[in-house]
User: Which sequence fits this backbone?
């Protein structure tokens, strides 16, 4: 098989990719295979979705977007990409609380890695999961709901517990959002005002290349009826639409300059139907507990001279705490420090241990779907429920059907 991930930095080692059209077909596949991994839209940058056995995609299962207005939830088929469900949901009068930078990713794949957007009061996408249906190693179908004993361990699963077939998500009434971009917020201003900056809109993202200038762009996503500031902590309002990467077209990005739009057309940075980000890239991200945010930024700045030659851009975002065991924002509000690297695999790989060492003192937690070098002991220190998750995986998947080389290393399992 010669299937690659979205970025093309790796070719999966799986023997076959299956896309069953029914739960019965999926159950039979899983029950018969000694090694299986779920595959989403392939947007992860490491081998988290790989296996020596078969990959199974939930994208061929019947599409489902079923709103329960009274319960304020929507149940969706797990293989759907967010971009494929948001308009149906919106037409029914509802919204999700947040989205990642791109709508191209599958629901199952996003929640398995703790994928997030931005906003002081916005938890990760996994935090809005109210229930799951999954096919476990013996081929049987299980459901779990928020409040059930294993639930907090099962949502951010790294794909280790089974093939997720349906996901129930919390919904909120639909809302319109405006997006305003500011240019030039200095490091001094960020140091003096970080909490005020990140609290100043529904979702705030700052983009930096780690030069002494600070954040070249700050993207504010606000409710459409909010009047944005004339100046943003020293930053000036952009006078034309911008892409976070200076050489890329703003045509790829969601509407800016304050034009109101639907939540699903403003909360992501990138539009479905266009290449998100650069395409020829790698990504790394660490979530740092908010009390350490400024110290962690300073620690990364000390590496600026080795980071900058390999970098397209970095993004700083905030994420609210959730209770999910393997969520990078488990139990504490976080600042996310993200790196979009040039596709220089050996050079980036060589830099990753230094980055991990620089951020380890701040209990930084790596994003599971991006490239990083953290060993089991380091992950155990950062994720206090890691061993509880291992025990859960041992119970739900005793033969290790859904384990792969990477998760086995991370979990020491
Ligand atoms: C351009 C770009 C921008 C990004 N922006 C963000 C961002 O804003 N915020 C952020 O947090 N991350 C971001 N990411 C990372 C991305 O959201 C994660 O890597 C996410 O997990 C990818 O989802 P996917 O559907 O592609 O899953 P895959 O990469 O295919 O798989 C990810 C994991 O999900 C598991 N999985 C997939 N489907 C199933 C299933 N049905 N059942 C069980 N397990 C399953 C896989 O086994 C694997 O463990 C970005 C990535 C790219 C390429």
Assistant:
């Amino acid at each position: 098989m010669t299937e690659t991930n979205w970025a093309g930095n790796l070719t999966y080692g799986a023997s076959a990719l299956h896309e069953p059209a029914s739960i019965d077909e999926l159950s039979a596949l899983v029950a018969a295979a000694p090694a299986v991994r779920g595959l989403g839209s392939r947007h992860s940058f490491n081998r988290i979705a790989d296996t020596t056995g078969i990959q199974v995609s939930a994208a061929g299962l019947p599409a489902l977007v079923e709103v329960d207005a009274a319960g304020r939830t929507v149940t969706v088929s797990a293989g759907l990409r967010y971009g494929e469900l948001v308009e149906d949901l919106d037409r029914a009068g509802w919204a999700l609380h947040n989205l990642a930078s791109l709508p191209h990713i599958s629901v199952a794949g996003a929640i398995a890695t703790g994928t997030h957007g931005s906003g002081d009061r916005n938890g990760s996408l996994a935090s809005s999961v109210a229930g799951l249906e999954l096919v476990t190693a013996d081929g049987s179908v299980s459901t779990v709901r928020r409040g059930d004993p294993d639930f907090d361990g099962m949502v951010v699963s790294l794909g280790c517990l089974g093939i997720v077939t349906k996901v129930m998500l919390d919904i909120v009434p639909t809302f319109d959002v405006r997006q305003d971009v500011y240019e030039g917020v200095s490091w001094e201003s960020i140091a003096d005002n970080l909490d005020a900056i990140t609290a100043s809109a529904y979702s705030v993202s700052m983009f930096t290349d780690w030069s002494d200038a600070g954040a070249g762009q700050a993207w504010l996503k606000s409710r459409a009826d909010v009047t944005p500031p004339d100046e943003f902590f020293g930053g000036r309002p952009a006078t034309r639409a911008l892409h976070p990467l200076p050489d890329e077209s703003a045509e790829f990005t969601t509407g800016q300059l304050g034009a109101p739009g639907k939540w699903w057309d403003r909360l992501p940075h990138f539009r479905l139907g266009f290449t998100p980000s650069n395409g020829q890239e790698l990504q790394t991200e660490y979530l740092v507990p908010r009390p350490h945010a400024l110290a962690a930024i300073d620690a990364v700045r000390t590496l600026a001279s080795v980071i900058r030659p390999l970098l397209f851009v970095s993004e700083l975002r905030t994420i609210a705490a959730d209770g999910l065991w393997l969520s990078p924002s488990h139990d504490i509000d976080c600042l996310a420090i993200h790196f979009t690297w040039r596709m220089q695999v050996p050079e980036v790989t060589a830099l990753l241990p230094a980055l991990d060492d620089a951020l380890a003192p701040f209990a930084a937690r790596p994003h599971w779907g991006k490239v990083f070098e953290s060993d089991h002991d380091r992950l155990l220190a950062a994720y206090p429920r890691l061993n509880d998750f291992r025990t859960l995986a041992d119970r739900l998947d005793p033969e290790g059907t859904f384990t792969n080389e990477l998760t086995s290393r991370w979990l020491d399992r």
Q: What stands out?
A: The chain has two domains: 65-174, 176-365. Residues 345-359 form the longest helix (15 residues).
